[in-house]
Amino acid sequence: MKKNIKKIIPMVAIATLMATSVFANNNVQNTKQALEENNDKQNQIYVNGELLEGINLIKENDKYLLPVRAIFEKLGYEITYDANTKIISMTKSPHFITFSTKEDAYTFLRMAPQPLGQAPIVKEGVTYVPVELLDLIGIQNEITAENTLIIGDEVQVDTETTVETRQNPIIITDIDKDKNIVTVEDSQKGTVVLNIKDIKVEYTTEDKELMIGQALEVEYGDIMTASQPPVNIPKSVKVVDKISYGEILSVEKDGENTRVLFKDEEIGEVVLTLAPDFKVEYTTEDKELKKGQSLEVVLGKAMTMSIPPMTTPKSVKVVEKLNQEVVEEETNQEVITGTATIKSVDKENKQILVIDEKMGEVILNLHDDLKIEYKNGTGLNAYEWMVEGQKLEIEYSPIMTRSLPPINNPVKILILN
Fold first, then answer.
1. How many CB atoms lie within 10 A of CB 86?
2. Parallel, antiparallel, or unpaired for β 231-232 and 190-195?
3. Last residue of a domain, which of 151, 182, 208?
4. What number is the average pLDDT over the span 109-126?
5. What is the pLDDT of residue 343?
6. DSSP characters for 30-76?
7. Does residue 66 have a pLDDT over 80?
8. What is the mean pLDDT of the chain?
9. Are residues 195 and 286 in the same domain?
10. Residue 210's domain is classified under what CATH number?
11. Against a cut of 0.85, is the pTM above it?
């Protein structure tokens, strides 16, 4: 039942497509007022309302660049440089940022490197990086009409740090055990990346290890980055039973047991076998199972291979029907599609850079759930279609990062030639 609501929330993010986000706060407003009184100077940099004397913004290849050490030391980061590898590391718990002075690849919280459209530049011993690095790690910033960079509060703070309940399911969609990274789909927050390196996971289920598809209760940490997807170091993580939502198609007696044909929103039809002493919870006026009722079910782990499959559920709750207005709102959402040509391929990181006819350059993550089809009905072997010049029709996911070029986890790719 909640699954429908989950799909609506991320669609709001499409309004930010290809746009640079501006986060207003008191420091930014005060600084802008000061600039209006002294607008004859350009390329200045303010950090939390304080002007950095002698520190300037520069522009190269149509990109604004900021001096690394001056800005990030002011923000409280510890900066180190490895002369052998040419790697700069910047640390301020829980942030860990690395990049090489040789290439356009910036790593945040030990995630996959992200391009920002410009490799670092070294001038007179000073290393400069694109201002977009601030966006990537969630630091609020704005460039005024006078080319002055205003840097505000460090991150977006998630004020709702209470534990998510089962009515707001959080489902694991990807796991990177080497990096202690878990990607989840939150019905309210959308996709979130959890860094669980120092977190002891609690298990309330039979399974005692993390697996894709598990449901979690998460108490988020106070800091949620402004990146897409956001990154969070949670306070606690608990593995719980996954709740399924759906509708009763039929109810019939099978000897002493009751057989309920249940249409699960994700896996389709399932037969629920209820023993005479099975306790059904009712949150509606009806106190008996009927066709058309909406259910909230924790399915049993054991399920027959029949069609439809059969299981003895752990719990069954009769709930109110989904609000019809919400369903209509979801079905009216416009699908975001585009036609693009592959510009470059990064097989190691499972990414391709495409040039969309309307949006320009976009980086596509080739995730496991991506649907790939061929217009002529015949498929190529894995990766054979990933060549420069290949034309694609793409169904984009609703969330696009604010980086340049933006990054998207597409829903579907149609191979055109």
1. 13
2. parallel
3. 151
4. 85
5. 92
6. HHHHHHHHSTT--SEEEETTEEEEEEE-EEETTEEEEEHHHHHHHTT
7. yes
8. 77
9. no
10. 2.40.50
11. no
